[in-house]
Design goal:
With 170 residues, this protein is of the alpha+beta class. The chain has a single domain, classed as Gcn5-related N-acetyltransferase (GNAT) (Aminopeptidase), CATH 3.40.630. Helices cover 30% and strands 28% of the residues. It has 5 helices and 8 strands. It has helices at 24-30, 45-60, 66-69, 113-127, 143-151, and strands at residues 12-13, 17-21, 72-76, 82-88, 97-104, 133-139, 155-160, 163-169. An 8-stranded mixed sheet has the order 1-2-3-4-5-6-8-7. A hairpin with a 3-residue loop joins strand 1 (12-13) and strand 2. Helix 1 packs antiparallel against helix 2.
């Protein structure tokens, strides 16, 4: 059995960004009409479904592993404005890989913020002794997400149904 005691930091930083883990209460707040945590353009149908799944999982998990199941809010360092999300879908599997997901508000796309946030998250994962890499499932028509993954060093590893599979090895 692997030792999952390696804890997430309270925040991560990059040159322009701060990443902050969302609490269970904050995820529930994202579900509400008129929430102020993130621009509405981040909350696509796919992200909303992922948030619901994260809430259900986190309600069943001990609080000390919530950071592995939640989204991390991507905030602009200069003004604290919420711009997007990045996070894992749970602890690394038996193969040592963790599945990731991410999203960026439309008004902040094409500025390198998503790649910077994803790289900050990968830098933390690299320090985790039981994590060997990361995996992404990207809708084949989502060209901006593919571009972001490839710019961060992910390599295409196959396809499952309508999803392209990308992996990042440490």
């Amino acid at each position: 059995m692997q030792d999952n005691s390696f804890s997430m930091p309270d925040r991560m930083e990059s040159r322009r960004l701060v990443l902050s883990p969302m609490s269970l209460q904050e995820l529930k707040e994202l579900q509400k009409e008129g929430q102020k945590l993130l621009p509405e353009s981040v909350l696509s149908d796919i992200i909303r479904k992922a948030v619901r799944n994260k809430i259900l999982k986190m309600e069943q998990m001990p609080k000390d592993v919530h950071s592995w199941f939640t989204y991390w809010r991507i905030l602009k360092k200069e003004d604290g404005m919420g711009m997007g999300l990045v996070g894992s879908k749970g602890l690394p599997g038996e193969d040592g890989f963790v599945e990731l997901g991410y999203g960026m508000a439309k008004e902040y796309r094409r500025m390198g913020y998503m790649a910077e946030g994803l790289n900050a998250y990968l830098d933390w994962l690299y320090q985790c002794p039981f994590c060997r890499g990361a995996r992404l499932r990207i809708l084949s028509a989502n060209f901006p997400s593919v571009k972001t993954a490839e710019s961060c060093g992910f390599e295409r590893a196959g396809q499952e149904d309508i999803y392209l599979i990308y992996v990042y090895r440490f």
